[in-house]
Amino acid sequence: MTVFITGATEGIGFELMRIFAAQGHDLILVARNESKLNAIQQEYGKQARITYYASDLSHPDNAEFIYHDLQYRKVCVDIAINNAGFGTSGSYTQTDWEKEHDMLKLNMVTLAYFTKMFARDMKARGHGRIMNVASTAAFEPVPYMAAYGATKAFVLSLSQSINFELKGSGVTVTTLCPGVTESKFHQRADTQNTLQKAKILPQATAREVAEYGYKMLMRGKPLAIHKFGNRFSVFMERFLPRSIVLRLASSTTH
Ligand SMILES: NC(=O)c1ccc[n+]([C@@H]2O[C@H](COP(=O)([O-])OP(=O)(O)OC[C@H]3O[C@@H](n4cnc5c(N)ncnc54)[C@H](OP(=O)(O)O)[C@@H]3O)[C@@H](O)[C@H]2O)c1
Predict the structure, then answer these.
(1) Residue 223's pLDDT is what?
(2) Which atom of ligand 1 is least distant from the CA of 9?
(3) Spatial distance between the Cα atoms of 52 and 166, rounded to a whole number of angstroms
(4) Distance between CA atoms of residues 205 and 116, nearest Å
(5) 163 C-alpha to center of ligand 1: Å?
(6) Is the dihedral of CA 112, 114, 118, 121 positive or negative?
């Protein structure tokens, strides 16, 4: 099987890569840092055949290049995991537009593009699995991470709809929703503070999230919210007024 993973050098994507490498699948990995990709190829290349693209997926043109290059090389992707993503935090009037714009393109446009292209090919072949990484933030507005939360709501909505459209085609789209997960994500999003405040929320390691995501992906589950505590809060939020949900969400981000 050929497995395509974006954001495979760190955190959840790295752990997913390790799971698939241990099974000897062919891997196509994408991230920006070429030396890390090269080190992964050296270390895991004995277990699995690894190809990589050192590419900034905040530029959707790069995603188009990668897809067309795979077509040119006649590579059929059986499993596609759109995991690369990052967050920004702070008051929306003060956050940096350039960085946020890159986030919107990476978290939404590139993910939507790869999902369309791989789902189309998989449907034509009658089989395939896609996993898109959203977040528990997808279920609620998130003041002080407003744009990030909105990108994840987009991922959830898009992926669930496509999974529905693909029923009976042999192709499934799983939306993985991690809660707070230890990784470099928080450094880049400047949310180390959030991590402290969010101590009441369930926390997980990237390995735990990856193992759970892997299981749900292979079972073709449409929605995978990691940890019972997160599933419980997502369920309970339905019964709370939006004003309270907003206040609760902002208490962990501000
Ligand atoms: N950590 C959490 O608490 C948490 C919670 C819910 C959801 N999530 C979601 O889970 C996914 C993975 O997050 P993580 O915690 O594993 O983050 P992470 O440790 O920061 O890893 C992010 C990965 O994405 C790659 N990446 C980042 N920007 C990229 C770009 N512009 N182009 C190509 N690759 C890029 C990074 O490699 P390079 O830097 O080399 O590009 C890295 O491999 C994200 O979509 C995130 O939103 C995380």
Answers:
(1) 98
(2) 43
(3) 29
(4) 30
(5) 23
(6) positive
Q: Determine the distance separating the centroid of ligand 1 and the alpha carbon of 250, expressed in angstroms.
A: 22
pLDDT band at 59 (very low <50, low <70, confident <90, very high): very high
Q: Kindly give the distance from the C-alpha atom of residue 184 to the centroid of ligand 1, in angstroms, as a whole number.
A: 8
Residue 199 — very low, low, confident or very high, per pLDDT cuts 50/70/90?
A: low
Q: Which atom from ligand 1 is nearest to the alpha carbon of 187?
A: 20
Q: What would the pLDDT profile of 6-24 be if each residue is shown by its tens digit?
A: 999 999 999 999 999 999 9
pLDDT at 23: 97
Average pLDDT, the chain: 96
Q: Is 93 exposed, middle or buried (0-12, 13-18, 19+ CB in 10 A)?
A: exposed
Domains of the chain: 2-253 (3.40.50.720)
Specify the DSSP element, H or E, that contains 79: strand 79-82
Residues having CB closer than 6 A to ligand 1 are 6-13, 30-33, 36, 56-58, 83-87, 106, 133, 135, 178, 180-181, 183-185, 188, 206
Of 51, 53, 156, residue with least CA distance to 112: 156
Candidates 176, 224, 180, 227; CA nearest to 203 is: 180
Adjacent-strand bridge partners of 139 = none
Q: Over 37-52, what HEC string results?
A: HHHHHHHHCCCCCEEE
Burial of residue 98 (number of CB atoms within 10 Å: 0-12, 13-18, 19+): exposed
Q: Is the pLDDT of residue 94 over 80?
A: yes
Q: Report how far ligand 1's centroid is from the alpha carbon of 188 (Å).
A: 9
What lies within 8 Å, CB to CB, of 236 at 6+ separation is none
